[in-house]
Amino acid sequence: MADADAAIASFMAITGSADENTARFWVDAAGGNVELAVGNFLDGNNAGGAAAPPPQDDAAVAAALHAREMEHEVRAPDSVKRGRLLADFPGADDDEDAYTPGAGAFDDDEDDEEAEKPAGGLSSIFAPPTELTHSGDFQKARADGKAQKKWLLVVITNEAVFACHEMNRDCWSDDTVRAVVEASFILWLRPHTDPQASTYCDRYDRDRALPLQGGYSAHPVHPHLAVVDPRTGRRVWTKDGKVSRDRLVELLSDITERHSLEELAPVQVAPRAATPPPPAPLVGGAALGGGVGSAFAAPPPPPAPPPPPADPWADAVLSPEPAAGGVMVAFRGPGIQRKRRFVETDAVAALFKYVQAEAKPAGGFDLLCGFPPRQLAPMASTPLKDADVHGQAVQMKLTS
């Protein structure tokens, strides 16, 4: 109490105020801080230097504060206006009731956005490709691939790894990827907790498999992708981790171009040739059953080497490379990796003659183009402008 009285006395001495109630109001409002009370008092003075009389109740204090806040003029809010974004449609009168909801500029966009939203939400966006996945076990998928002459594409996923869901969204739902898979592959997709996926891991990656509960095994990185030859069970390609859509199309296309399920036909064992009888021993300088001349006769001459195979493309017309225009073809294969322009009127046989001269293959070869790969040999007489090879990559494959 003594401190409050001392603060009030100090306030009255500094400000020169003789009203103890006024001093007590400003000191109490400043929480007993004399300097703050004096500052507030001086700030509240009017132009004539006299302090405003302190309010005596809460209502008066609130009214005074409100009056100080309203010292600065606040602009009133704009009035509500109503308009139309587009002019009246043909046949509509000026009556506002003639406007048809749904004919506005934004109504169609909103409808389109609603139509584009997937019905199942996020679950449908990241859903696995069940309609593209083989439903049988690994051996059944391999048998179907062998019967249909398609590669077995193995994919092992992990629900806890977001990269697996990204591939569901970006790769397996893409039309190009689906077309490549449906044309040349059988997709065998399983979660890593599936017993069949564990069996696959034990068979192909036992040295780096991680143990799971229940005695199962799993790959250390997901998703795991591999391409398996359905005839031999040998893996021709494998990848751990996410693969982008474009890279996946490139890798799968390259596998179908470089390997063929038609190449490894069942091996036919040739019958054994009859073993010639051993020569008769010499007795007294001559073989049994013959004279001296027959024993020391000159050996037969070695057989003549077979003639070199004839070049089937020797008669093909190969025009000089044009400086611009024409048909541009990129060649890939053993001994050749380059691009060249060809005259549009030259036949497809010109491609074979060019590869024969540049790569110099020891045996026969074929040229493949596009996806799925198509053979160009049956189109040897077709003009290049009609063969759909412009801007394409042509793969050379040895056949003998």
List the defining traits of the structure above.
Ubiquitin-like (UB roll), UBX_dom, four-stranded mixed β-sheet, 400 residues, alpha+beta, UAS, 13 helices, five-stranded mixed β-sheet, ubiquitin binding, Ubiquitin-like_domsf, Glutaredoxin
Please report the total strand number as a whole number: 13
**Strand order within the widest sheet?**
10-9-13-11-12
Text of the CATH class of the domain at 124-258 = Alpha Beta
> What's the order of the H and E elements?
HHHHHHHEHHEHEEEEHEEHEEHEEE
**Helix proportion range:** 25-40%
Regions with little confidence, pLDDT below 50 for 5+ residues? 46-51, 89-93, 96-113, 264-270, 284-292
> What is the CATH fold-level name of the domain at 124-258?
Glutaredoxin
Tell me the major beta sheet: 5 strands, mixed
The shape is elongated
How many distinct helices? 13
Question: What class, by secondary structure content?
Answer: alpha+beta
- What proportion of the residues form beta strands (DSSP E)? 15-25%
| Relevant CATH superfamily of the domain at 124-258 | Glutaredoxin
**Alpha-carbon Rg, integer:** 46 Å
Mean pLDDT score: 77
